Structures are given as C-alpha cells and as structure tokens.
Fold DNA-binding response regulator.
Amino acid sequence: MTTIPNTHLLLIEDDLELAQWICDYLTEKSFTVSQCHRGDRAPEQIIGLNPDLVILDGMLPGLDGLDVCKQVRSKYEGPILMLTARDEDMDEVLGLEMGADDYLTKPVRARVLLARIRALLRRHVPATPAPDLPQSSERVQIQGLQVDKSTRTVTLQGQAIEVSSKEFDLLWLLAKSAGELVTRDYLTKSLRGFEYDGFDRSIDQRISRLRKKLGDDPVSPFRIKTVWGQGYQLIRDAW
C-alpha cells in the first residue's frame, strides 16, 4: 500500500528518543508527523490538529493515555492506535473500552507499526449519512425506548439520550431488528462500507458506548446482548 501524500499523524509519546525514531521512520514512509510529549496537552492537540490518525502512548506525564483517549473519543472520529509497555489483556480491554481502535505492545517494531497504521487508515471511512433509509418520519418504539429516524433522537423512559451520529446509526439498525440477531458482518457493511475483516473493532466500541448511555450492564448486558462470534441482539423486553 502506498501512503497517500500529506497523511497527517499525531504521535503522543514522552520517550523523546523513541518518539524521534518513530517520527523519522514514518516521515521516510511519506507521512506528515506531528509530536506531543505530555498527556495533559494531548486532548487540545488532537482536537486542534484533527490528524488522520493518532498514535497514543499509554503512560504519559500529566494525563494517562487511557484518560486522553476517553476525553477525545466523542470529539475526534479518526483512528487511535495505542502503545503500551505492558503486555496484559486487561490493558488492551481498557484501551478498547476507552475508544482506541487498535493496540500495540512495546518494543515497537517498525514494520508492524507501519502495517497497523496502514490497516487503520484503510478501514477508516469518514461518517456519511446512511443512504438506504428514507428521510420521512420513521420511529421505533420498544417499551420505554424510542428511536426516531426523522429527528435522529433517542429517548428512554421519556428522557432524551445524547448519542453521536455513528451511535444513532448503529442503534437504529439494532432497533429495527429488535429481538433478532444482527450480524457483525451486516453492521460493518452497512455502517462502514466494507466487509468485516476480523480485526475492525469500531462496531464493538460503538456498542460499548451505547450500553453505557442506555444504562446497560457492561459486564452482563441485558439490553444489547453479544452473540459471540456472530453479532448483537437488542432485547425487546429489557426497556
């Protein structure tokens, strides 16, 4: 894959020697790379620069990388690749729960880093309005949950629930098929525009955020259930 000219990456890493090595390597591969070395400055840099991709270290001075990811995820829609010095499943789970798109353990191997970056950029598709649904008044009412396509609003027990555009599109597809399995392949194709490749975690991340906003239990979800290896199911009698 040839790098698209002017693809802008933001590297957030406090190890100056490592940061310079990564910067030099990626610059050689035709990326434009900006650097930030403190976690407490990272959210402003991410939002202000709006890069095509963020490489985010997990351990940073001023603000932990996980907290940086949590702060910016609702405002920054590009992919986030997290780096960590620890090889533990819990670190990966936490990073993905906070909204990271992928996870790479140090020591960083140049070709692996490049492959992950290119894969994330290849999978990332800017949000566009769903073309397959008419813009007339469409509404799904499931007990206390109401999802209104015409106004793109969600209410639960009469209370408005703030969701992002991407979260709404996902919830709409689940609500239309409430009680039925909606496969990850279908969701990825409908919402991302390509077939599920076994690695893309964007749908899982949206599910995680929706569960939190809809009062679902992230450990034992009862409103949006995971059908392992297949997809998700919105439970009709859980609202």
